[in-house]
Amino acid sequence: MGHIACHGGRFVTVVPHGRREDTWFRNWAQTHAPAWQEARHLPGSRLGDPDRVWRTFEAPAPSVDGYRVIWVHSSTKAARDGAARAARIEAGLAAIDAVATRLASPKTRIQSMCPPNRERSSHHRPDRCGGDALGLRCVAPTGQ
Q1: Contact predicate 58/69, CB 8 Å
Q2: Which of 28, 86, 87 is nearest to 61 (CA)?
Q3: 89 domain residue, yes or no
Q4: Which residues are CB-neighbours of 116 under 8 A, at least 6 positions away?
Q5: How far apart are CA 29 and CA 8, in angstroms?
């Protein structure tokens, strides 16, 4: 990037997640509202699709290397990310329902790993025991 910049060139790069600029922007955006400016507005790619809008925001400070940082928000990517997030949540809920169905079965052999005398046990950790939350009886692990 330095070679391109010193010869008067321009470049665009994606800032990796976890880089200082990315972390700063994510933290800053939690307490501030970026002043996004519409950079491009196009109709949806198909009839009935929402418009495709790109918005930009220039960071108030340059990157660690001294380059200008401009954040870009894409309405299409935001919609795609939202759909993917919803699909992952739906898959997680389906997995929880499957486990709950197995646990509710009268023939289940799945049990919690808590000691039988939870109230009197000094080494019992309620935060590690899912017995109460799942409605399971707590049993001591075999071999103890």
Answers
A1: yes
A2: 28
A3: no
A4: 138, 139, 140
A5: 32
The H or E element that residue 42 is part of is strand 37-42
Is residue 59 within 8 Å of 25, Cβ to Cβ?
A: yes
Out of 62, 81, 100, pick the residue that ends a domain.
Answer: 81
For residue 117, being part of any structural domain is answered with yes
Which two structure tokens, joined as six digits, stand for 20? 């200082």
34 closest CA partner among 77, 70, 63, 82: 70
pTM value is 0.60
How many CA atoms lie within 13 Å of 125's alpha carbon, on the beta-carbon side?
3
Taking the C-alpha atoms of residue 132 and residue 98, their distance in angstroms, rounded to an integer, is: 19
Coarse DSSP helix, strand, coil percentages of the chain, rounded to the nearest 5 percent = 35, 15, 50
- DSSP-derived 3-state class of residue 43: coil
Residue 57 phi, psi (nearest 5): -145, 125
The secondary structure of 15-29 as a DSSP string is: PPTTSHHHHHHHHHH
8-36 pLDDT, tens digit per residue, is: 888 788 888 888 888 888 898 899 999 99
